[in-house]
UniProtKB/TrEMBL annotation:
This is Chitin-binding type-2 domain-containing protein. GO terms for cellular component: extracellular region. InterPro entries: Chitin-bd_dom (IPR002557), Chitin-bd_dom_sf (IPR036508), Chitin_bind-dev_reg (IPR051940). Residues 74-132, 133-190 form the Chitin-binding type-2 domain. It comes from Elysia marginata. GO terms for molecular function: chitin binding.
Length: 192
């Protein structure tokens, strides 16, 4: 997306600088975590054309990346014991607890990570890096949406996770636990 701003001028008495902003351009990329602001300004004074100076200023503001939290499939609660908590498939600082047969994502308190072996939130340790969390430990069956790609989903089979893909024109729909046709012109939107 590109946004252009209006022209702005500040005037003054003889010998004072005049700031004229001739254009402001804002570039925002949907897939990026940066915003680029570009401003062109012209500084003038009343001492003649030789003293004019055009300045182009570009600033880049980087924001924290967006995190898409996966939606959990309700059938996960039918394949684990109701009192059991399991590791969240993609967030090491969270776990899943079944409440009235519905999966609920619960965060670990301040800075703790979920230990899938101890089934509790603990202080981060070197032997508990997030990348080694196995989302399907002790689960046979069940599906999860992939956290970053709507064409993919995770299937649990005898404690092992497998990333599977929908066909090219299909996306994963958590509400029906299957791949469905996506709407035209929109990425990852599903037909209703």
């Amino acid at each position: 997306m590109e946004v252009l701003a209006r022209e702005s001028t500040r005037t003054g008495r003889e010998g004072e600088q005049i700031l004229q902003i001739s254009s402001v351009k804002l570039n925002i990329s949907e897939n990026s975590s940066s915003v680029q602001l570009e401003t062109t300004r012209e500084e003038k004074d009343f001492y003649g054309p030789d003293s004019r100076n055009e300045v182009k200023v570009t600033a880049t503001i980087t924001t924290a990346p967006r995190v898409q939290t996966p939606v959990l499939n309700a059938n996960i609660c039918s394949v684990i014991h109701p009192d059991t908590v399991v590791a969240h498939p993609f967030l090491c600082t969270h776990y899943i607890h079944c409440d009235r047969n519905q999966p609920r994502t619960r965060p670990c308190p301040g800075g703790l990570v979920f230990d899938p072996d101890g089934k509790a939130c603990v202080t981060p340790r070197n032997d508990l890096p997030c990348r080694e969390i196995k989302p399907c430990d002790n689960i046979n069956g069940g599906h999860f949406a992939h956290p970053t790609n709507c064409h993919l989903f995770v299937q649990c089979n005898q404690g092992e996770s497998q990333i599977l893909s929908c066909k090219d024109t299909m996306v994963w729909d958590e509400t029906v636990s299957t791949c469905v046709r996506r709407k035209r012109g929109t990425e990852c939107e599903i037909d209703e």
